[in-house]
């Protein structure tokens, strides 16, 4: 599946490179190339929305950090923090072809429980659900 599809988010300029058959995008937060999957396409557009459209400081956004949940290692997609380091918004990104379902919510709640964010956003780039 081609990851570059129109999204229900503002257009943004991303640095995309091709190595063989694989596309990579330079992450706006991590400042390094990562494989451009459909989920990453959504994640980078959401990052750009927060930083470019809403002028949120990049230093307060965390991407794919690992946490322990019982004996499992998990990674959240995006966490947006306040200046006092409290989590303001936890974001679960899905590929545009993935429906935002009960299972996506259940996955998101694992990270939410750990971070205790004020808001939870689930997005596939087309549909967005925000919960408080």
Explain this structure to me?
The chain has 132 residues and is an alpha+beta fold. Helices cover 23% and strands 33% of the residues. The longest helix has 16 residues, at 38-53.
Class by SSE composition? alpha+beta
Q: Can you give the mean pLDDT?
A: 92
Describe the biggest sheet? Answer: 5 strands, mixed
Order of helices and strands: EEEHEEEEEHEE
Name the poorly predicted regions.
none
Helix count, DSSP H or I runs of 4 or more residues: 2
Radius of gyration, in angstroms, nearest whole number: 14 Å
Number of strands: 10
Strand content: 25-35%
Helix content bin: 10-25%
Distance between the termini: 33 Å
How do you describe this structure in short?
By secondary structure, the chain is α+β, with helices and mostly antiparallel strands. The protein is 23% helix and 33% strand.
Walk me through the topology.
Layout: E1 16-19, E2 22-26, E3 33-35, H1 38-53, E4 61-63, E5 66-69, E6 72-75, E7 78-81, E8 87-93, H2 102-115, E9 119-123, E10 128-131
Parallel strand pairs: 8-9
Antiparallel strand pairs: 1-2, 2-3, 4-7, 5-6, 7-8, 9-10
């Amino acid at each position: 599946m081609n990851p570059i599809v129109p999204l229900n988010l503002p257009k943004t300029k991303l640095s995309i490179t091709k190595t063989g058959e694989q596309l990579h995008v330079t992450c706006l937060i991590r400042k390094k190339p990562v494989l451009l999957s459909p989920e990453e396409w959504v994640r980078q557009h959401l990052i750009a929305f927060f930083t470019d459209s809403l002028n949120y400081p990049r230093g307060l956004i965390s991407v794919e950090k690992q946490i322990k949940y019982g004996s499992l290692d998990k990674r959240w997609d995006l966490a947006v923090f306040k200046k006092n380091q409290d989590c303001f918004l936890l974001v679960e990104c899905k590929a545009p072809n993935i429906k935002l379902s009960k299972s996506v919510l259940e996955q998101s709640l694992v990270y939410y429980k750990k971070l205790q964010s004020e808001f939870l956003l689930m997005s596939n780039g087309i549909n967005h659900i925000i919960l408080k």
